[in-house]
Amino acid sequence: MSRFQILPDAAPSQSAELMPCAACDVRELSICSALRGPELDRIAALVSRSPVGAGQTLFQEGDEANAVYNIIEGAVRLFKLLPDGRRQITGFLFASDFIGLALKDRYAYSAEAITGTVVCRFPRVKLESLFEEMPRLENRLLRQASNELIAAQDQMLLLGRKTAVERLASFLMALAQRQGRAKTGDTVDLPMTRTDIADYLGLTIETVSRGFTRLRKDGLIETPDSHSAVLRDAEGLRALTESG
Amino acid sequence: MSRFQILPDAAPSQSAELMPCAACDVRELSICSALRGPELDRIAALVSRSPVGAGQTLFQEGDEANAVYNIIEGAVRLFKLLPDGRRQITGFLFASDFIGLALKDRYAYSAEAITGTVVCRFPRVKLESLFEEMPRLENRLLRQASNELIAAQDQMLLLGRKTAVERLASFLMALAQRQGRAKTGDTVDLPMTRTDIADYLGLTIETVSRGFTRLRKDGLIETPDSHSAVLRDAEGLRALTESG
DNA sequence: AACGTTCCTTGATCCAGGTCAAGCCGAGTT
DNA sequence: AACTCGGCTTGACCTGGATCAAGGAACGTT
């Protein structure tokens, strides 16, 4: 399930490129939107881009947290493990998302690329000092953290109190929202496997699979292939997310 | 289960007192530890203390979020409800804890006092402008948010992947930690009811009760009364929190 | 084209924890 | 001291989702 290829952490990968942030695809959507021209140049000198292959580990729970990341493209899973292998995925992250809000001196979770991914790596020591220089950055991170806390509480409600089908419906609608495709007829991208979804929703793979079948039979979705879902009845799905 | 006495939100309660922050019992432990002398005076002019009776509502999910709070003494539960009444408690807060990190313009959860509680109320509009003036405050809040995110992820692991007894052991040890009484022989305070614990751990009250009985029969705890637990074997409990 | 592999689905069975029901205990209250 | 009432425990039974098992579909790989 988990693979342990570990990326060189401190040394920039051979394929890393220095990138002018001004040309960054996700700048406007990411935390970097808090920065102005000269600040961007300052940042550009500190960050490095690197590709991360599907299934590769970005960092592991317990590692020294010496970098934070912005996802440029691709998808990443964050997760925690129990010693016997039980896994809880605490979040899926996509292009423009920021990794590293929740950390002390060590990472509290592991991060793996789901698909081929490109990240923008930022040394953490430099981040701290940068806050004084760029208070808008710190403010932006605080807002981001606030949003993530709200999302975390929604997830607790889901894990603690929702049924299997409600969890799946909630997951699909949240993903749809994130992709700006939450209306009936829209297609939602599912880059992760059924096992990932199960470990995110606190279920088994079989229950997730049966959930998809249920939603399909009830005319709420179609599943042209296992990595996409077409919303056949967005309202019906939404009703399930807050039903009882 | 939930009561709907609502505190006057904008108007300071008749029993509110203006308090010099310099004399505040929890200052050194709370976010106010980030503030220096003159800043404290500035803050003191903005905050007001008020008592909140056991069971009373501080604010409800969906309310306009026009204040944040510091808990001076007592205990508070934060929770979300599904329309049919299922409840998930997302956190228990105690003296020196800060309420209001996770918010947009509306509260994402409800807050009720568990016991008689005293809070320090802070108008939110003034908070925003204060950040520019006191960057150390913002920095402190970001750290706090980071810690809460880590705790939230632990809770997701608990809700998604742990058994009933593991959840209860994790809960007791986390509470013990927070109270600085996590060694064998120490007594942990449980101000909340079994129903609260159940709604926090994603279980029913009966399962929580059976969990206490199990831990008692296994010699891990004693329960002199329903609102306290003596740790008889802290190591055994800790083993349960990360066992498999 | 035959063969692995990985991922997904479906069916049959099982069980941890939910539900239902009864009773206990302690703190008010009259 | 009898009564209520909320909170807690325990027992008997039930069920949603886990587990176990089998097979199918979409891939590369040789």
List keywords for this structure.
Jelly Rolls; four-stranded antiparallel sheet; homodimer; 244 residues; Arc Repressor Mutant, subunit A; DNA-binding; alpha+beta; globular
Strand and helix order of chain A: HEEEEEEEEHHHEHHEEH
- The CATH architecture of the largest domain in chain A can be named as Sandwich
Major beta sheet summary of chain A? 4 strands, antiparallel
Shape of chain A: globular
Question: Might you state the CATH topology name of the largest domain in chain A?
Answer: Jelly Rolls
- What is the share of helical residues of chain A? 25-40%
Poorly predicted regions of chain A: 1-15
Termini Cα gap of chain A: 34 Å
Helical/strand content category of chain A: alpha+beta
Tell me the fraction of residues in β-strands of chain A, as a range.
15-25%
Widest β-sheet, arrangement of strands of chain A:
1-8-3-6
Number of helices of chain A: 7
Mean pLDDT of chain A: 90
Instruction: Look at the structure and give the CATH class of the largest domain in chain A.
Output: Mainly Beta
Q: Could you say how many structural domains of chain A there are in total?
A: 2
* Cα radius of gyration of chain A in angstroms: 19 Å
Oligomer: homodimer
CATH superfamily of the largest domain in chain A: Jelly Rolls
